[in-house]
Amino acid sequence: TSCETNNRTWFHFSVSHATAGRVLTFVVHNMNSQNRLFKHGMRPVWRALPSRPQWERVLHPVVAAGTKAEDNFTIRFRHTIESSETHFFALCYPQPYAETCSRLAHLDALFGLPPASAEIMPPSRLGGGDTAGECDALPRTPQKCEGLEEETRKGGGVGVLTAADGLVEEASVRCASHGLPCRRPPGVYYMRELLVRSLGGRRVDLLTLSGSDGMLEEEEERLEGLFPEGRPRPRLFRDKKVVFVSARVHPGEVPASHVFDGVLSFLLREADPRARRLREAFVFKLVPCLNPDGVADGHYRADTRGLNLNRVYLDSSLEAHPSVHGVAEVIKQLHGRGELHLYVDLHAHANKRGCFLFGNALPSAQQVENVLYAKLVALNSRWVDFNGCDFSARNMSRKDRRDGKSKEGSGRVG
After folding, report:
1. Which residues contact 139 (CB under 8 A, 6 or more apart)?
2. What is the pLDDT of residues 181-223, one digit of tens each?
3. Residue 258: is it exposed, middle or buried by C-beta count within 10 angstroms (0-12/13-18/19+)?
4. Contact 393, 295 (CB under 8 A)
5. 157: phi > 0 → left, psi -120 to 50 → alpha, else beta; which?
6. pTM, rounded to two decimals
7. Which of 101-115, 161-175, 302-316 is least confident?
């Protein structure tokens, strides 16, 4: 279709009715050349549902073949089937849209918030008509977000699911509270808002998290076209700067979701003095999934229409890029109030190893603080490679090799 892209890396599939003990060989064709990943020993992951919900690396090494020039890259790997259950395989540890829904539903119940609407609203019901053009990939009937906890399903249920979808839903429910508190931490303020609906009608949520100290009676101002549920806005706080964290604008970069989950879990720790001090000093604005359509549909870098949403921050619109537009408007509001302290957009990289930060080239005084933050993160985490960080002006305007889009339109630069 006109929305097709050349990003072909992500895979996630299931195998049913295989005999226990049988060795299956998988060959994945038509991939982008990701030889750098596999030559360093990367292997796909697998799990069997319902008995083994945790993902593990396949035991056998991957054999990669083909070249980028000839566009014939393939990988081959083997796996021994351990039971008659359905086995799932993926490029790396997935985090489906259903699991994000489940985790947020767990927190809603924990903090006594009303259940969030799980319905996927098709474009016709959002009032904007079908904005997909020739890409007829948007849902046409209401569905349900898979994996919500039972107490949030009030008279609900889910849409038509395959057997494999049902297994994934059940696993998402069981894993929803992993790393999250099992009771409401005292002194913590938490609010979940529907920032906007994606083109496919899925939720793009904005979380507000802080300590309850310094909380005012006033609420944040509304923004035109955003927060369609009409619920009360979060409370304002006295003398607290805002840290904004977003993830998953590129659907296939699932490590971003895992880092996001770690950040959220850490900030909710009741007994950790570091988490408590952060809540006392800052308000955290968190967007778990910027591209829910791409995640749900299994894309690698694009949304439903084949767009790289991390290149449209300078000229986004509510009609064409609702999630990016919503985030940009919130950022402008925070900056206008003089409250924005730090902006972090979480990604993953297929050609670089380790953990690192990309930052902007700023005027000298600001740049010292910019680079110092990365250095402090590296000093406090053995996983962060400071030498792998990049704060150059060149990395702010570099164009993508595939589509020629400049990084000037990314969230970090724009």
Report:
1. 120, 122, 200, 201
2. 999 999 999 999 999 999 999 999 999 999 999 999 999 999 9
3. middle
4. no
5. left
6. 0.89
7. 161-175
What is the rounded distance in angstroms from the CA atom of residue 300 to the CA atom of residue 315?
Answer: 22
Q: Are strands 282-287 and 241-247 parallel, antiparallel or unpaired?
A: parallel
Q: Answer whether 279's CB lies under 8 Å from 188's CB.
A: yes
Distance from C-alpha of 138 to C-alpha of 219, rounded to nearest angstrom:
35
Which of these, 338, 331, 310, lies nearest to 241 by C-alpha position? 338
